Structures are given as structure tokens and as C-alpha cells.
Amino acid sequence: MKTSLFSIVLIGIIALCSSCREDVDASALEVYDGPMNMAINIHLVQSDSAIVRSDIRAPKQLEFANGNIEFPEGIEIQFFEKDGTLSTTLRADRGYLLKQENTYKGEGNVQVRNLIKDQKLQSEELFWEPNKKRIYTEKFVTVQDGETLFNGTGLEADETFTNYSLKNPRDSRILVPGEGN
């Protein structure tokens, strides 16, 4: 009798526990891979020996768990000479900081202007490696150097866009007066 009473109580407990259990939605268990932090109107100044070297601004920044950062509403980076003179600007419709590689990536309408040498670059994608002080792309680029316009695929330059090389130039031409401003 004790055994059967014990069996009935055990079966009752099992039935109660199993009947109260809810089915878990598998999608609720998926790992969240969206942004962990968000910042508005960011302004980051990078200096070397108390001399401003670059100034980064973006209206919105999203930071992810892996350390990558996205600038979905655009990014602007300014580069300065050792004497503090603004030499180059870089703008992109969207930007990313790839933390593992310590590389910035600009996408969309990417424009670089060297104010000192009157040079302009336009591309749909551009990378900046701060540690190597270089910018590069494998995409189509248009470079305006003074009154000459160059087109090509792929470019490598120093971060201030003072010295550059086109990898696969396609054509070049002299600008008509008033064009390209």
C-alpha cells in the first residue's frame, strides 16, 4: 500500500509539473546581435604629443558587443598638420570602425578633400587605417588634382591624401573652366 500510495503521489507531482510547463519559443532564445550602446552627436579628438592629429564627428554612433562601431547617419574626419592647420577632410554617408583591424570604413558618397594641395577624391567605399596612416579602396574612384580629372579602380594614399597612386587608371582629362567646383 505504501508503494502504491508513493507511486500515485509521484505520478501526481510529475503530472502537475509537466502540465504547468509552457512551450518556449525558440526565437526568444536567439542571441541578440544588435547595438549594445548608442551615442548622439559624438566628437572624438585624437592627438599625438598634445597636438591634434584628427577630429572625428558623427551624428549617431552604435556600438556592438564585438567592439565594432557603426555611424549610420554619416561620419566626418578632419586631419591636421603638425602646426595645427586643417589639411584634409573625409566625409561618408555611413561609417564603420572595424575594431579587430582598427580600420575605419566609409560607404556611400565618400569624399576626401586635401585643402592644401587642392585635391578631391570621390568613391563609394574607402578605408582609413590610423596606425598605418593610409587610406585605400578597391572601388572606382574619381580624383580631381587641380584642373585634371582622373578615373580609375583602386587607390592608395597617405591619410592626408597628399600623395596617392591609382591602381588601374581609366582615363583623365582637363576640366573646362567652371567645372568641378
Automatic annotation (TrEMBL):
A GO CC term assigned to this protein in UniProt: plasma membrane
GO MF terms, alphabetically ordered: lipopolysaccharide transmembrane transporter activity
Name of the protein this chain belongs to: LPS export ABC transporter protein LptC
Top-level lineage group: Bacteria
Native species: Algoriphagus chordae
NCBIfam families with a match to the protein in the record: LptC_YrbK
Pfam family of the protein (one): LptC
InterPro entries: LipoPS_assembly_LptC-rel, LptC
